[in-house]
Amino acid sequence: MKPTMSDGEKLNHFFETQNLQFDKCLEPLMTCKSKSIKAHSIQNAGTLGLLERNGHVVMPKQHHSKDGPSIKFKEVGRNLATTFTGFCAKHDQTIFKPLDTKPFSAKDSEQLFLLAYRSICRELHVIMEAAVKMQSSYNWRVDKKLEDGNTPTPAGIVATTHMMKSWETWKYRNKNYDEPLLKNRFGTIKHSILVLENQNPTIAVSALFSFASSQYKRQLLRCVLNVFPTSPIQTIVIFSYTSQDAKKVRKE
Q1: Which pLDDT tens digit goes with each residue over 118-143?
Q2: Which residues contact residue 5 at a Cβ distance below 8 angstroms, ignoring those fewer than 6 apart?
Q3: Helix/strand/coil (H/E/C) assignment for every residue in the chain
Q4: 227 - beta bridge partners?
Q5: pTM for this model (two decimals)
Q6: How far apart are the first and last CA of the chain?
Q7: Cα–Cα distance between 223 and 15 in angstroms, integer?
Q8: How confident is the model over 58-105, as pLDDT tens digits?
Q9: Contact status, residue 211 vs residue 181, Cβ threshold 8 Å
Q10: For the chain, what is the radius of gyration of the CA atoms?
Q11: Is residue 82 within 8 Å of residue 48, measured between CB atoms?
């Protein structure tokens, strides 16, 4: 007879899973054992300083309840906004020092590279954390005899799919960003830059995305998007992509 479980027990486990945090340092070699800190994916001193009001910025946040998930816009303290546990203190400081300690220049290939690299690392962290949560949930179901761990099931397939997405994203970063970073080959990443003048500071974005309608040689076509104010009257938009994808990304 298949075991049964109350909705309350399942809901409690769901919230426990949502509270799991993935805090491995994602430095290029992936060998660091130090504890990760809450690092900013969007620069705190420069960008968030232009966007904050009374020490807070507005962000979309996931909200979970018994009625299901939703997205709500909430005020978040500036020092906590856009943080992710993707680097230890040492690697966060050393890797991004040229970006965080100098005025930003759209002509500085190293700064542009590191801006895109930080976005990809944040996305990799989000995907890895999701994979950990899905695998943890699946393991719990197997432990409670709700799943047969030796037979393919929808829950097992979902967990495996997240693991594959995590591996594919790491592989993309490793090939196109980790290796060039270690060799100081910043020019391998290309950028399309748009400067918006006479714009009040309004929004900041740090994201890696793919073009849903386009697949080339069965590989996702990926692009990094960064948007941030550089002064009280100027905002910059930067699309970043690999040299080999440049023509296709620009077309899209």
Answers
A1: 999 999 999 999 998 888 887 777 77
A2: 144, 146
A3: CCCCCCHHHHHHHHHHHHCCCCCCCCCCCCCCCCCEEEEECCCHHHHHHHHCECCEEEEEEEEEECCEEEEEEEEEECCCCCEEEEEEHHHHHHHCHHHHCCCCCCCCHHHHHHHHHHHHHHHHHHHHHHHHHHHHHHHHHHHCCCCCCCCCCHHHHHHHHHHHHHHHHHHHHHHHHHHHHHCCCHHHEEEEEEEEECCCCCCCEEEEEEEEEEEECCEEEEEEEEEEEEECCEEEEEEEEEHHHHHHHHHC
A4: 205, 237
A5: 0.87
A6: 54
A7: 32
A8: 999 887 777 778 899 999 999 888 989 999 999 999 999 999 999 999
A9: no
A10: 20
A11: yes
Q: Which amino acid is at 249?
A: V
Distance from C-alpha of 227 to C-alpha of 212, rounded to nearest angstrom: 21
